[in-house]
Amino acid sequence: MAKAAKSSFRCTECGWTTLKWVGRCGDCGAWGTVEEAGAPAPGRALATRVSAPALPIAEIDVEAAQASPTGLDELDRVLGGGIVPGGVLLLAGEPGVGKSTLLLEVAALYADLGPVLYITGEESAGQVRLRAERLGALAPKLYLAAENSIGALVAHVDQIAPRLLIVDSVQTMMAPEASGTPGGTTQVREVAAALIQLAKSRNIATVLVGHVTKDGSIAGPRVLEHLVDVVLQFEGDRHSRLRLLRAVKNRYGPTDEIGCFELTDSGIIGLPDPSGLFLTRRNEPVPGTCVTVTLEGRRPLITEVQALVAPTALPQPRRATSGLDSARVAMVMAVLEKRANLRVGASDVYASTVGGVRLVEPSVDLALALALAGSHTDLALPSGMIAIGEVGLAGDVRVVSGIQRRLHEAQRLGFTRAIVPANTEEPVEGIETVSVEDLGEALRTALPERRR
Length: 452
Prior knowledge:
By secondary structure, the protein is of the alpha/beta class. Helix content is 24%, strand content 24%. It contains ten helices and 21 strands.
């Protein structure tokens, strides 16, 4: 057999050649100038064949890039109109939150427009079929396969030519040419790159399901979130029916929209008006409750804050919160003690929200303070009143964003009076606004019968 030709190395300064690489030229003594003969110079890229000629931007066809509605209005709201052909969407959420149920509903609705391929790597095809039967998602053009190999997935795509591809989940898929086990950093990166290239080259809308870590972040390499076009976060307490869908990243639409869903035994239902889930319907007002309006993205939601201040014989009173930030509750209690002379620190304090919603926005501070004060004094706020505002450590009530949008939502649901920070925008017709500068003024307005 003929011996393979040996490579040679040449000094770019003087032309001296050698059969092996060295750091210093043996002739001129220059460092770092010895390179392999015939190799391209650093910083230079060789021209290759182009996939498509470059065109003026005004002549680019945009018809193929128009979003197609999925059939779920709440999902289309978050996506900015629907799924874009060739776009890659990453849906992440905790186990059991309803990711597979949501995607199975989407697949059945989207199958009316063309073939849909659902690849499951975590369950068998029979298990997914039973869930689809329970949800009423047995669409004729919905194809189902249980695969873990990226090569087998491509073979299914060649056979079916789907308009929508769903992979559940990206951590269970395996690329044979990559090292490591499925779910590892190398495997997830290679699988994601292969699926993205497949989606872009064949103009297939693709949805990837992603796992999350203990702290709620998306599992796998961070590059996964950079490669995809849309990143959605599916949230919700497993003990509650409410599910929230947020857009963390969206190249085709806004990132401040939120979708609300209700998870039931028969499937998942979009909630265009979810405010009723966060209110308690009662005939007479009850001490320790206050209604506020929070903003989830650009969407106003009417929510009720409840507080219970009870005497205790324990040396260390209990503190329990549900749906509220415990540090925020402790801060509001300290402000009530110092600025309003309400001795709530020596009592057991329980604070929660209605419907399992989690409130972390500072605009909830004023409603929480009024609920705590009402429970402590055993006085109820008047019916039809809401409170919006952030409470500072000095006892001042600060302006929050989106006051007009919040007031319009409150007026739409029948509330007639609102306590808002001073120097807010123009009032909304149909609802009386009372501007307050500090917490003491807010307490005098909401609880005029409170003992001095």
